[in-house]
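Appendix B. Extra example for self-study. Work through it before the problem class; the solution is given directly after the inputs so you can check yourself.
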Amino acid sequence: MAKITKANSVGEWFDQRLNTTALNKVMMTEYWIPKDINFLWAMGVVLAVTFKLLIISGIFLLMYYKPDVNLAFDSVNYTIMQEVKYGWLFRHMHGVAASVIFLIIYIHMFTGIYYGSYKKGREMIWISGMLLFVTFSAAGFSGYMLPWGQMSYWAASVITNLFAGGSLEAWGLVEWIRGGFTVNDATLTRFFMLHVFLLPLAIIGIIALHFYSLRIPHVNTQNSEELDFDAEAEKYLAGNKKSAKVIPFWPVFLSKDFAVLSVFLIFYFYLVFFHFGFAMDPVNFDPADNLKTPAHIYPEWYFLWSYETLRGPFFDMFGMKAADIGLIIFGLAQGIFLVFPFLDRDPDILPAHKRPLFRIWFWIMIIDLIILSVFGKLPPLAVTEGTWYQIYFDNAHIGFYATILFLLLWAALPIITRIDAKRRGAV
Amino acid sequence: MRELKILLVLVVFTGALYFGVEPYAHTQLHKTVETPDYTFKDVDGLKGMAGNAKSGETLVQNNCVACHAIEKVGFAQSMDNATLAASFQLTPPDLSSSGLIYNADYLAAFIKDPAKASKTEHKYQDGAAHPMPGYGWMQPQEIADMVAYLQSIAPKEMTNKAVFADACQRCHSIKYGDMLNGTMASFTPDADIKKYMGTTPPDLSQYIRSRSEQYLHELVNDPQKHLSGTAMPRVGLTQEAENQVITYMAEVGDSSRAERAELGPKFLIYLLVFAIFAWLWKAKIWRDLH
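Solution. Structure tokens for the complete assembly:
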């Protein structure tokens, strides 16, 4: 056992037992971040804070929510929204944070893609991040079921139905997932468990992995400069703060994060109080009714692009049913981002504006995802009479073209990244 | 400068996405209908004819109170709601407030031909008839007199809840209005109203959140515009009565509205102060670095 002497302060007492001084150095004051960054580098901390808001508001909601098909709707819309003091505030905070966190996740993701922060040792950062995207998606989906409104019920029906695998007709699997032949009380209680226990636990674990995966390869810079972190850190510690190319996590990096965070919080609470409709769909304020299908069923905005790849192929092709083709593309869309580091065959880390073809690829991808999202929400009208323009550019066709473009972009990625690298002379 | 450019790109793409999936998508998902007509131009109304309340009183007593209660002038409800519903298909309305909450032209047209005025003729096919017989055989002057009488006995003003009860609650529940005692359940028992309407009319507790206010106004003014073929009758509410109904629905279903409006600015001011300090602190720390 280590020799413990009488401590002269509380800090020292803890230091003797928990080595807090060294911990603080490793985690905060001597955890080095590059200086050459912009505000997009603050999205990680913005995400961590938004997740914290979700946990806190979720705990309060959990005190009154009742996971039972007969009680759930009223426990949310009456007890929490009308009776509990500030219950509405916690629900709005939870609902809006659940929606906005995906906006920040997408920004965070595409920042990584733009600056090439997923390769040459940073693969695990990317993969753990994509696992977070998957677990957050599952949390969003399971949470959406809890108020037991019309959209809760029908979205649950549509999504669990996907596990039948189209023509595979794996109904046994669907029943196993639902705990019954249709979405029912057992479905609600199991998704409740996932939402309040297993998924948050998994998310916290993967966040720890995500943070840890940053330690070895370090954070990327906006000009993809490879730094000797030890040498730069020495400069900084010696007092050459101006010439050092690194900054400590605390207080320098976090001071910038807090500044960005403060702007985000204004935006977020503006939405919570004055503009929450986008995150709390009106249709879900009708209680679930298994005999009344809503006129339009659509997911929350952050799932729309992948939802559109599911319904984009609306006619049979190559001897396959439209629904099966959609399901295959949908499955592909769920997994493809995970292997991004291995599809990019350019060995150099560079921001997209220094990679001519990749830059074009990047912006077309963003625009295509927006088009997919918009047409994922619009009714999939297929016009059969009219001018060629009306027939071939109706909602259903535009969604189909955007889906095909989405596939082509992924097919092109290994090729165009290789061409970029060749032209630069890197390979 | 570069950071502002990045911010601009973020705002433009997020804005485009938002515009596409929210305001634009909603124009495509919901149909637009004509704005509500609170003068009920299409009905066979009074045509400017003035009525005599005194002679209307006798006419109403002779023709209406056999089925309708008029508590205001001492004609109490003859049986309980359930028995009335069993006898008449649904509970007939008390007429005490009808002179205030219903448009006078509409009221005249309704007395003449209830199914036509309420736009529910499609419901009464093959020998089925509206529970209230039409009084089209009366002289226009007599109808005007009855309307004048109903107006003369109507209260000058009513609470939002009372308007809702008279205008909507015979068929619709709004249980959040009184979760504890259940007094805001529909007057006509569920089984009877389901038989009469073909389906149980929805509980309206959350309609203020599930439908836009504009939609509610358009629907109440003329249900056929949004729900073609619906069994829900047009009831002919005046604009003011309709506002009161929807205000009541908001009081019940969105009770935090006032608190939200009051608390929101305070939150934002607090965060603005936080933002100022956060940026000052950031500037102070980064000053040494460049």
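Self-check: The mean pLDDT of chain A is 95. If your reasoning did not lead you there, revisit section 3.
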